[in-house]
Each structure stands twice: as structure tokens, then as C-alpha cells.
Write a structure and sequence with these properties.
By secondary structure, this protein is of the alpha+beta class. The protein has helices at 2-21, 26-29, 33-36, 81-86, 178-190, 192-211, 315-324, and strands at residues 41-45, 51-55, 66-70, 77-78, 93-94, 100-105, 108-113, 119-121, 129-134, 140-145, 148-153, 159-161, 164-166, 218-220, 225-232, 238-245, 252-257, 266-272, 280-287, 292-295, 333-337, 344-347. Among the domains are: 33-137 and 151-161, no CATH class; 178-211; 223-296, no CATH class. Strand 9 and strand 10 (140-145) form a beta hairpin. It is extended. The two termini are 60 Å apart.
Length: 348
């Protein structure tokens, strides 16, 4: 009897609490946060792990201001605009001894000494530098600018381009017809002055080619290709990259917007129809020392030709796809390197 009474006593507050909640309705779900209350968002620690910063709007302002709490001060305190701007940065990368941090702010790269708060600007450009990391010796910073990887020396500021992905295709050399080729060669053979000019031209071309600065191997990206992932190994010997190729023939859904500032009906681009062709992905590995680019093949993966189980319910589709015997279209994520860059794993 005691057990039953005790269980009823424990259950009664829960029942009362459930009754207070009431039923869930569309009106409750669609409540305006301005009068319902807003939870803190964008929560992050500072570099010292002493203060927590977050956006909060208890005063129902137009924008959520930044607040701060710490282990010594539990009451949220609104911070200044200057501190708010200083916290506007991407992912923080610590040095091994955790005395400095590397980060991106508004497209430029900075290194901050935690003990003093002093910041060293590594870049100050109109282009956006992103995804910064330290090299394994922490003497350089590796980062992405546009579609390419770069390194910059922390002490000397020397900038080195590590990849050469370009959308500017070289113009092919004009080809002479067979008749014009024969005529040109005949002129060279018949006239000494033309023969000498041709020899001088070839010598100058060879000299200019020798004096050209050697850079990374060029890789052309066409108008349908987009750099989807770009990673360098810790030893800076390999660059892995993934190209996304936009599918052809797909059409976006057009949604009319009747209320606009212009007074005219405008179009809002929506997603493509379900079932349309998905984009394709190709992964590559660039050997920096050999200046060679390799395609990462998935042909040898076990089960790469297996069909999804649902195809068995559609005999015609099963027959067609079985006859084609195509590899499944997959996307490679990674690679994720070990500390010295000797091994890497990927997910497919």
C-alpha cells in the first residue's frame, strides 16, 4: 500500500505539469518570438575559456545584442559594439602550446596572442581569405583564396601559391592547313634569311620558356564546375580536391512574388523538381613534388555496381540498369589526414 501511495505522490506533480502545458496548436507554434521570449543564440567561448558570449534580446530590440557572462559574473552583461566587432570571426585555431590563435575576420587573416590580446594581421586584401590552418611547424599559415590554396610566412610574410585552378582557358595555337604548312616549310628551305629568322625565333621561345617562373600545374575549371572541397596534407606534399559539376537540363521552380518594392511581380528562384538529375562529383589528388594530378577512382570499391533494393520493385528499371551495369554515383568526403600526412581516410 505504501508503494502505491508513494508512486501516486511522485506522479501527481507530473500530471499537474502536463495539464499546465495544454494542447499544442498552430497558434502556439506560430507565436512571435518578440512577445513569446527568445533563447540565447550564437553561444561561444573566448580564447581564454573564461567568458561566454551570446546573442540575446530580452529588451525586444530590432536586433539581438551581444551579452557576456563568466564564472565570476553570472548576470548577463551587454557588451560594447567594439567587443562585438572583435568577436566577429570564424573558427579559432590554436597553436600547440595554446598561446596564440589563428582566425579569419571579414575575409582577412589574423593571429592573436592570448595573454596580451595583441593581434597580427597576416592579410589585408579585397579578396576573401578563408579556412586558415597552421602548417605542422607553425611557421606558416595555409589558407584558401578563391579556388586556390596559398601559404604565408608568419615571420616574413612571404606568400606562395600552392595550386593553380583557373577558369581562363589558354587560347589554342592556330593550325595551318597542310598546303600552308608545305608552303611555309618550302619558304624556309629556299631562303636563308627566312631560315635564320625561324632559328632565331625558336631559340628565343626556348629561352623565354626556360626563364618562366615555375608554378603549380594548371587545372582548368569550366563554367559548370565548382570547387567543392580543397585540402592540403600536413606535410604539404599533396592537395586533395573535389569538383562539383552542375547537372545539365534541370530547371528551377519559379515562384511569383506579388509584393515587391518595384510594384511589379518578380520571380523568386526555387529548387529544382524532385527527381531531377543530381550534380556529379569528381575527386583528385595533386602530387606537388611530381607536379602531377591523379583522378581518385572508385571502381574497385566492393559493391560499387550494386543496385538499390527499391529497384527490385520496378522490373523495367531493374532490367535497364542491370544491362547498363554502371558504377553507382558517389561522392568522396575528405581526406582526413593523420598528423604527419603519411596516411589519410575518406568517407564515400
Amino acid at each position: 500500500m505504501k508503494r502505491i501511495i508513494f508512486c501516486l505522490f511522485l506522479a501527481s506533480p507530473l500530471a499537474l505539469f502536463a495539464q499546465d502545458l495544454g494542447s499544442l496548436s498552430v497558434e502556439k507554434i506560430m507565436r512571435d518570438p518578440k512577445w513569446m521570449g527568445v533563447s540565447p543564440s550564437n553561444i561561444k567561448w573566448d580564447e581564454n575559456s573564461k567568458n561566454i558570449y551570446f546573442n540575446w534580446n530580452p529588451e525586444k530590440l530590432q536586433e539581438d545584442p551581444m551579452y557576456q557572462i563568466s564564472s565570476d559574473m553570472h548576470k548577463p552583461l551587454k557588451v560594447s559594439e567594439e567587443i562585438t566587432k572583435s568577436l566577429d570571426k570564424g573558427t579559432i585555431i590554436y597553436t600547440k602550446d595554446r598561446t596564440k590563435v589563428l582566425f579569419e575576420r571579414k575575409g582577412d587573416l589574423f593571429i592573436k596572442t592570448i595573454s596580451t590580446g595583441e593581434e597580427q594581421a597576416l592579410t589585408n586584401t579585397l579578396e576573401r581569405e578563408a579556412n586558415p590552418v597552421f602548417d605542422k611547424n607553425e611557421s606558416k599559415v595555409l589558407f584558401q583564396r578563391g579556388d586556390n590554396l596559398f601559404s604565408i610566412s608568419i615571420s616574413g610574410g612571404k606568400l606562395v601559391q600552392l595550386s593553380n585552378f583557373t577558369r581562363s582557358k589558354k587560347r589554342p595555337e592556330s593550325q595551318l592547313s597542310k598546303q600552308d604548312q608545305w608552303l611555309r616549310q618550302d619558304q624556309i628551305n629556299e631562303f636563308e634569311i627566312i631560315k635564320k629568322r625561324e632559328a632565331d625565333r625558336k631559340e628565343l621561345e626556348a629561352k623565354n620558356k626556360t626563364n618562366e617562373p615555375k608554378g603549380p600545374k594548371e587545372f582548368y575549371l569550366d563554367e559548370r564546375s565548382f570547387m567543392n572541397s580543397l585540402r592540403i596534407s600536413p606535410d604539404e606534399k599533396f592537395i586533395a580536391f573535389r569538383i562539383m559539376k552542375r547537372a545539365e537540363g534541370n530547371k528551377n521552380t519559379i515562384v511569383p512574388n506579388y509584393i515587391s518594392t518595384t510594384g511589379y511581380t518578380e520571380d523568386i528562384s526555387g529548387r529544382t523538381k524532385v527527381g531531377n538529375t543530381l550534380p556529379g562529383y569528381e575527386s583528385y589528388l595533386y602530387d606537388i613534388q611530381k607536379d602531377t594530378i591523379y583522378v581518385i577512382s572508385t571502381k574497385e570499391i566492393p559493391g560499387i555496381k550494386d543496385l538499390p533494393d527499391y529497384v527490385k520493385e520496378y522490373p523495367k528499371q531493374l532490367e535497364e540498369r542491370s544491362q547498363k551495369n554502371e558504377d553507382r554515383k558517389v561522392s568522396i568526403n575528405g581526406p582526413f589526414w593523420n598528423s604527419d600526412g603519411s596516411l589519410a581516410v575518406v568517407t564515400v
